[in-house]
Amino acid sequence: MEPEIKIYDNAAGVTKAFAKHMAQWIEESKNPLFHIALSGGNTPKLLFRYLADNYKNSIEWSKVHFWWGDERMVPPDDDESNYKMTNELLLSQIDIPEGNIHRIRGEEDPPTESVRYGDEIESLVPDKETWPAFDLIILGMGDDGHTASIFPNQMELLHSLDVCEVATHPSSGQKRITLTGKVLNSAKKTAFLVTGENKAKRLQEIFSGPNKGRLLPAFHIHPAGELFWFVDQAAAGKLEKE
Which are the contacts of 43, defined by CB distance < 8 A and separation ≥ 6? Predict the structure, then answer.
């Protein structure tokens, strides 16, 4: 299925539009549970704050299970923790059972936690064929074209036969845990949230053809279900010149 590109004036517009879609997808789902894998980054910060302010009582949070597409291997109270950011802005603001929150334990040994988290996903997220199929995966894209914590120098993680892998940030050497490509490509719905002029060149490369795009992890996300790109005008600037 071809990706659907949705362009909005700015990051606030992206946030508002995606929140509306997310609420609708949760409401329309016929399954008793709705599994979402979350992203870190600046745009999700806006999203989580917006959801807490505008959807606190209108989404059936008790059916939503939150997971993370990737996490830095730091304690949950560390400022670099994706879990900490999500908890402060959204999870602590809504009425959701504690058992619905499935964090990556960044304080643990990375290889051990990678296996544990993968096992937890496999035990709770329904399969599509042989891979866990999240109802929704939210992704960002770095200005190097990475997504989740799959970086351009670790493309093999796109083809891993494990649910989760340990990744290494190419500059800092920081260890992370990430969902692998086969899980990312098994989702029912996948939404990239991409904002800012610094993403424009990579977005152009992804959509202008395979020569440069194939070198970028985000290029290889073609899920079995629906794929949406929610982008602002700044990020889409070079697309419009094609």
Answer: 11, 14, 15, 140, 193, 194, 195
